[in-house]
Amino acid sequence: MKSNLKIGIALSGGGVRGISHLGVLKALNEAGIFPNRVSGSSAGAIAGAMYCAGYKPEEILRIIVDTNYFKFLRPAISWKGLLKMDQMEKLFGLYLKENDFAKLKIPLTVAATDIQKGKPVYFSEGEIIKAVMASSCIPGMFEPIFHDEKYLVDGGVLNNLPVEPLDGVCDYIIGVNCNHLPEETNITNMKNLIERTVIMSMNYNVYSRESKCDFFVEAHGLGKYGVLDIRKAPQLFKAGYDRMIQYMEENPKMQELLVAESKSEVL
């Protein structure tokens, strides 16, 4: 007799810190827990898209480390942003060859922000790559992405932990935040001040949704890593993995997900 229990996981944005999500997914999978619905903003959308396409967490890490991300960006001759993301389509196209949400092995929802209407928007059907690009389009750094008749920017602006697409659909929701800030007693320069303020705003956005999660996981101190510091990828992966292992040991209720997954069907 099969159970109808369904497990959803929401992955926050956070730039390169999102690599820690891959460690979380690896730890869950090793424990026998396989989410059957995923939602994500920004870096969480990228990690989620690759995972839902069938790549293992370690494979995604290798792809990220081996890919020269910056060669796919070019200057924007515009007041809207410093860089254009249009060449990123080629990069995503190498790994998301079937550019259709319906072709994914696990259902995925991607959050972005409609900059004109000032509202979050969610994509779960149609073209994957444009939706993921829009979700990770950091305002000011990149020109907005025009998709689905909307000008879109980073999903984390208004919803950095998109649990809403999972709420009422899944029996269990795991929320994962990759931006935990360590306590700081000495802000030494304006750059640090601005970065910390932005992360605080993102985290307020996330923590307001924590109550919607049955399990909420965040590796401590990841906010200290730079948003584009790809050199820290192995440390970030390990931080997510170690924290998820620890969290499962501290929360025996997660054993219920083992039972659920062993019997459940993918949506």
TrEMBL record:
Catalytic-site annotation from UniProt: 42, 154
PROSITE patterns recorded: PNPLA
Residue span of motif GXSXG: 40-44
Domain PNPLA: 9-167
Short sequence motif named DGA/G, residue ranges: 154-156
Motif GXGXXG per record, residues: 13-18
InterPro entries membership: Acyl_Trfase/lysoPLipase (IPR016035), NTE (IPR050301), PNPLA_dom (IPR002641)
Keyword Disulfide bond: no
Entry keyword set: Hydrolase, Lipid degradation, Lipid metabolism
Listed name of the protein: Patatin-like phospholipase family protein
